[in-house]
Design goal:
single chain; 225 residues; alpha+beta; archaeoglobus fulgidus dsm 4304 fold; eight-stranded mixed β-sheet
Length: 225
């Protein structure tokens, strides 16, 4: 995949927050996706492990799957020393450099990406899925395993049921029950889609497990790269 850089990565926390606030205004969060036109959906995940020298190493994987049958087409992975400390709300500055390195190796162009992390469900409405979506200029969805911010009612215990995730009176995402009797996942727009499309695409990618197949594939690959 080819893309132009949007900014440098030598930022402290204050500069990173300021950048998020500026870039959040560029996110497109109201564009419906035509799921019938999608052919390839990719999953994105990062694992961080401490090596024998006590240095945190980030490992990213991007896995392209054929849509809608979820057959894996290609996996791209990259590793590097973790460039940014763990600070809640600034995950993309810790994980995106290695994700982009993996994306550069991917030869299959996805039509959309599902990212393990948040999109608009973020204090500054600019989680890692938004950041990656702007960088790649393509539809992205945030799929978080745990809630970062916001409140929601418990979704009904049935496949595909969801309730709004709300912060300060604004709907920022949804708590989605992908399978009965399992905890919901947290879905939010990353870029170039709307929430209804994000929910529909996520459910179209769910198989036998709680997490959508692109995220499961990327999680497994990130742990192996």
């Amino acid at each position: 995949m080819r893309f132009a850089p949007l900014h440098g990565w030598k930022l402290d926390a204050a500069a990173a927050v300021a950048l998020q606030k500026r870039m959040a205004a560029a996110v497109i969060a109201d564009r419906p996706l035509d799921l019938s036109a999608l052919r390839v959906v990719a999953g994105v995940d990062v694992s961080v492990k401490v090596d024998e020298h006590g240095i945190a190493q980030s490992r990213a994987a991007v896995v392209a799957l054929r849509f809608p049958d979820m057959t894996a087409i290609e996996t791209a992975a990259a590793s590097m020393s973790t460039p940014f400390p763990y600070i809640p709300g600034l995950l993309s500055f810790r994980e995106l450099p290695v994700v982009l390195a993996a994306c550069e190796k991917l030869t299959t162009a996805p039509d959309a990406l599902i990212v393990d992390g948040m999109g608009r469900a973020h204090p500054r409405r600019f989680g890692i899925a938004c950041h990656l979506g702007l960088w790649l200029d393509m539809p992205t969805i945030g799929c978080g395993k745990t809630r970062l911010i916001g409140r929601h009612a418990d979704p009904p215990d049935e496949r595909g049921a969801f309730t709004d995730l709300v912060d300060n009176g604004e709907i920022i995402g949804a708590a989605l029950r992908t399978r009965p009797r399992v905890k919901p996942v947290y879905i939010s727009v990353g870029h170039r889609c709307d929430l209804a499309s994000a929910l529909a695409l996520t459910m179209a990618c769910v198989g036998k497990y709680r997490l959508p197949e692109p995220i499961r594939a990327a999680h497994k690959a990130a742990g192996q790269c």
